[in-house]
Design goal:
By secondary structure, the protein is mainly α. The protein is built from nine helices and two strands, in the order αααββαααααα. Helices cover 76% and strands 1% of the residues. Strands 1-2 form a two-stranded antiparallel sheet.
Length: 306
């Protein structure tokens, strides 16, 4: 059996190997560097947890390849499911989603992923872990313990910051949900006002339809300017002014969101291409669109400077 410090070193090492594997795979698929993981540093805790758990559960059967495959597959699949469910319950988003994979369960686990865990268990037990075990056990105790303490401090600090960042991201999504509710109410008000304006015989402008509340408000503003001397329009001016004030507030909120995304708040989305949420589907889609617009603006500014 290993000491606590040795278990921790194994855990940190496999966290790093997992990050290397995931980052390389996703970066190749996306044709650009993607710093995978919940944390900022090069560590993926689920791989470290999975690897150390596999080592622990397969120790009694390390001479039986098939048993190692089955037990490792089941244990890792259970871990992946529990981790996915807990993270979604806590942050209300999914950091990975297998919904499009065949034979998946609730999008948290799928057959192909489980089979990969089984193969990885065999490779870990018979190929990967033996040389790593020899290396870790060969490190003098004082050095190994000191290294473990330093890594623990750094990783705990990283995890704490990343956890706070995930909670801030969830809060941002909640604010976007409230803002979108306000937009829907505004659209309903705009529909009512536009219908009233269209009922006026002297209306000059043609009927106008757009899904953009900003475009519709602007059109309504122009129409009411054309009819500003009409007595009926005066009755709606106060309502219209209130809508304009709300619009101004919503524009500020949108600018604030764009500013946050420009200043690093988009790391979670960039690092998780399959990032989804049942509750915040519309908001995440909007965020991804804003990120594209931000990147496009950044590229244009770079070209202008050149």
């Amino acid at each position: 059996m290993y000491t606590l410090f040795q278990w921790l070193l194994f855990f940190y090492l496999y966290c790093f190997f997992g990050w290397c594997f995931e980052t390389t795979y996703v970066s190749i698929c996306k044709k650009q560097f993607v710093n995978r993981g919940f944390m900022r540093g090069p560590f993926l805790p689920i791989y470290g947890t999975g690897a150390t758990m596999m080592i622990a559960v397969t120790m009694p059967m390390e001479n039986h390849v098939f048993l190692v495959f089955i037990v490792g597959m089941i244990a890792a699949t259970i871990l992946e499911y529990i981790t996915g469910v807990c993270m979604e319950a806590l942050f209300q988003v999914r950091y990975w989603d297998y919904s499009r994979k065949k034979l998946n369960f609730q999008g948290h686990i799928c057959l192909s992923s489980s089979l990969c865990w089984g193969v990885l268990s065999v490779l870990l037990t018979f190929v990967i872990h033996p040389p790593i075990e020899r290396f870790i056990l060969s490190i003098p105790t004082i050095i190994a313990n000191g290294l473990t303490i330093v890594l623990t401090i750094g990783i705990v600090a990283d995890f704490t910051l990343s956890f706070k960042e995930a909670l801030d991201f969830k809060d941002m999504l909640h604010k976007m949900t409230l803002r979108n509710s306000e937009i829907k109410l505004m659209l309903e008000k705009l529909d009512e006002l536009q219908e009233k304006v269209q009922e006026i015989p002297e209306k000059v402008s043609k009927s106008f339809h757009s899904s953009s509340y900003i475009d519709r408000l602007e059109h309504l503003n122009n129409t009411m300017e054309e009819l500003k001397n009409h007595p009926l329009v005066d009755e709606w001016k106060q309502e219209f002014v209130e809508l304009k004030i709300k619009l101004s507030i919503l524009k500020e909120k949108k600018s604030e969101l764009e500013h946050q995304l420009e200043n690093g708040k988009n790391r979670i989305l960039k690092n998780h291409p399959t990032f989804t949420s049942i509750k915040f589907k519309e908001e995440i889609g909007e965020m991804k669109q804003l990120i594209k617009q931000t990147l496009s603006k950044s590229k244009k500014n770079t070209r202008k400077k050149k």
